[in-house]
Amino acid sequence: MVHDNQLEKSNKFLRIRSVHGRNISVVREVYRRENVPCQSPLCLSDCQNSTGDGGLSLLPADVNHYLIPDCQVAREFLEVLENPVVTGIIFLQTVVHSVQHEGSKRLYNRLRNLVKDKRKASIIFHNEFQKYAYCEREEGETLCDWQTRSTYAAAEWYFHHLATQKPIIMVTLNKQAIEKYENKTLNVFVLSLEEYLRKFWQSHIPEVMELYESLTASLETKVKEKDYKGYLPLDILESGVKSGRFVQGHINVNRNNAGQEAFVRQKRSGSTVEDDRDILIHGMPARNRAVHGDLVVVEVLPRSEWRGRSSVIKESQEGQGEGDEEDGATDENVMPTGRVVGILQRNWREYVASFASNEQVSEKGGKVLVIPWDYRIPKIRISTRQVEKLKDQRIVVRIDSWEIDSQYPNGHFVKTLGPIEDLEAEISAILLENTIHVSAFSEAQMKELPVDTPDNPWCIEEAELNKRRDLRSSHLIFSIDPKGCEDVDDTLSVRELANGNLELGVHIADVTHFVKPDSLTDMEAKSRSTTVYLADRRYDMLPGILSANLCSLISGVDRYAMSVIWELDKNFEVVDVLYGKTIIRSSYKLFYEMAQAMHDGISLTEIVKNVPELQNMLEEETEKRVEELRCAVTLLMRVARCLKARRVSGGALELESVEVQVQLTETKSVEDLNPKDHLEIHDTIAECMIFANHWVAKKIVEVFPNQALLRHHPLPKSEQFENLKNCAKSKGFDVKTSSNKALAETLDRCVDSKDPVINKILRMLATQAMSVASYFSTGSLPRDQYFHYGLALDYYTHFTSPIRRYADVLVHRQLMAAVLAEGSEGLPGNQELDELSEHINHQHRAAQNAQRDSQELFQYLYFKQKDLNNECCRADAIIFQIRANGLMVFVPRYGIRAPVYLRNKDGQVLYVQESGQSEWTGGSITKSEGSVSVNSLVGSMTLTLLDHITVKIIPNSSRAHASSLKLELISTEGYALDQDIPTTEKMSKNQKQAIIQEVRAVAEEKRTQSSSEDQGHQFHSLKAEFGQTPESESLYSLFESFKEMAKKPIS
């Protein structure tokens, strides 16, 4: 050992595992010193602790103790420590090394993320660099004993370093350590993890003991049932991927055929398989213990073993998957087929699950199989003796391992969500399954934000007046949004200039003024990434003081904005553009229908009645202002028409999607759920936002060519258009897909004057064929990949909705840095931005999926209450795909896409007589490119793509999975009642109103009939986390529409 005045040098001998899985011996020089930061605000020494702004957390001063887990606790019970309530944890360097080298990479990353989260107020203390906290390993001492001794020595040092101000608790699983150290130093406690949880946390978070017991049980010996093949060593996998022998990618299980089909998308570079097609993984043995979402390495089989994907619609069953039998019917087009030979990264998460209705506990250790809510996840074996208590509950489980000799993965029970089919439990399940974690904004976050109360109103700062362009008196600014919307992101202005040109302005809420980089509010917004809109509630990305107040550009108040203002010539070409921070005061808050009606010539009386800002004025002043506003709206629509026509001529697509809108009463209760009427004013606003996003993208790419955040919509794969082409062909249309321009032009020509729904269906199918748009950093893609296929633009980003999208917040920061020529300092670099883009993309997709799932939940609960003979349970449906055993149809009246079976599991076929009676009999099905024929003992019938049929809507209850709707063919003719109703009035008012109102009423009635204790001891915490927003609070615009909701591919 070498000494000097400041440092103490020694050698550390390690035996660690390399990245290739080999054990190697390593000698490292270690320099110890006295001034290692302790990261506690109670420190009385000169530790030079960070304030928290440099990326290091500070321990909290207001907890009653600091917690130091030992190595085994951190490795095996990290999930307990991840609970957001447990703060003030000190992870020693010794413990972190143990997790890194004795645990797994995924566990190590979880620990690092826990420490990075400032809300946890937890730190890593480098005890092995602190001269007085470190212990040399003694000769003959086991690694475990040395780790325990080092942990206690560091705990003692911490206690004395803080001058005995704060008790220290060391938690361990080592009984000998407890006996040895528990009475050694006053107020340095050594407790077992179980004793610690019972004494300190059981009353605050009751489920913590259930989690502890479940984790303990999962560490027991594993059950041996079925052999899989072992994985190849890591170095062989890596070299195989580099050479092209193997293919690397994430495994995606087909939810409609989970037991037989999974796919791995190939990376475009270095691929040896033609066409960059997905690789089919057929059957569970070939999947080799890979779980949906895992990063796997695949060996492509010889071409003679390639298969086609199944052409049969699989009927959903409880716990289907592992034992699914071959269906025998496959697509004629074979595709590359392979098997999993290695797993690079497990992407296991928490899963919602439930017990089978007849599940019993086995004799050995309480082992029991649970069925995950997600069809794509196999059954999971957990250890619990609470089956009777939990059998009718939605529960949460985690996977711990999947051994080579086990048919099922092993896991553990985490917590319960509530009774099956209880509305709040089902909403909780939707959020958790989509990895959406929502909770109330913390007190610390709220303290960062400004105050706006009657006693202390918020006002424009004098400093900002000098830095911003003031548009309050010079511009007529107004907003056009859905009725009842209060989180107004964007406003518009348009006026004629003295030189004869026009000025168009898009003014966006300046969220970045209030949300500073790396603040707690920024970190929370980054974590959420988007506002989540469900069918009956929403979860905001930003606290209400910002989203509904200070950042909302409502009329009549002064607000900070980020503006893009163009000067346009008489042909609407851009002459000049200005970007900058402004102060605005919106004059009018219009809703879409009123703005459209103003353009169409509605009377002055109706306008004044629906625009509060025009009321209580003299008649002459009112007429003047109405005319001024009407001219502005009309001019704005004229400009937008030209901008859109220019984009469409360049190949922009006009696609169709199912848009559903929730209407609320003045008391914020849900009044209606109805299909959204499409108006020209919708296109007007959308076009102005697209225009702003495009020009902002051009600006940030120009200044930050290698670290700008853009949005990329890639080219769709040609095979994705097959169904669209077949449907169009059945009606005599020819759809060209060689380019976006060719597709747009041919879709415009696919018009059937006798059936206007046909064009909408074809555009919906084109939407399904599209690739998913995503955010990316410009330094991560070649420049020729920056384009947005659907919008036909070379550069595109998101700038116009910073209240509900974190990507827009990042773009605002980049734009101001570009405008002010501040350089890239303080902005995320390419690598950081690329990682952040992946996170935002994931959260964005999760929010869209949660929207879809919640809508399907409310549809199911609505029809569950109906008599099947009720008129609302019969509907017109259009056939858009033909399968070997049935049809895929779309129900315009309710926006439902679902299968209709023509052959059941017993091999019988369905025949519908002219009288409307249907019968399952013996027979056969003949499928062709555009039609399917049923030949039964009773008679024959033929159905063709885009035919109208009548279906009965039947609720399909499921204990284990999400309940759904089942469609049954009752007539080969369209439903006359639906076809007689105009498209915009497909749902009667009573039906629209009933869907959500009745569901909520029934759920409320159930809750009042049973006490909160019946929900289990977690009721209050679950209600606080997932409960419906109180009606006294803001329920405005629960969701504007589902227009951005991605169409779920038929897979």
From TrEMBL:
Q: Which UniProt keywords apply?
A: Cytoplasm, Exonuclease, Exosome, Hydrolase, Magnesium, Nuclease, RNA-binding
- Alphabetized InterPro entries for the sequence: Dis3_CSD2 (IPR041505), NA-bd_OB-fold (IPR012340), RNase_II/R (IPR001900), RNase_II/R_CS (IPR022966), RNR_Ribonuclease (IPR050180), Rrp44_CSD1 (IPR033771)
Ranges annotated as biased composition (Acidic residues): 321-330
GO CC annotations, alphabetized: cytoplasmic exosome (RNase complex)
- Reply yes or no: does the keyword Nuclease apply: yes
Q: Where is the RNB domain?
A: 468-821
Q: Which domain of life is it from?
A: Eukaryota
Q: Does the record's keyword annotation contain Magnesium?
A: yes
Cofactor(s) recorded for this entry are: Mg(2+)
Q: Mainly localized where?
A: cytoplasm
What PANTHER family does the database record attribute to this sequence?
Answer: DIS3-LIKE EXONUCLEASE 1, RIBONUCLEASE
Q: Which family does it belong to?
A: Belongs to the RNR ribonuclease family.
What is the protein name stated in its UniProt record? Answer: DIS3-like exonuclease 1
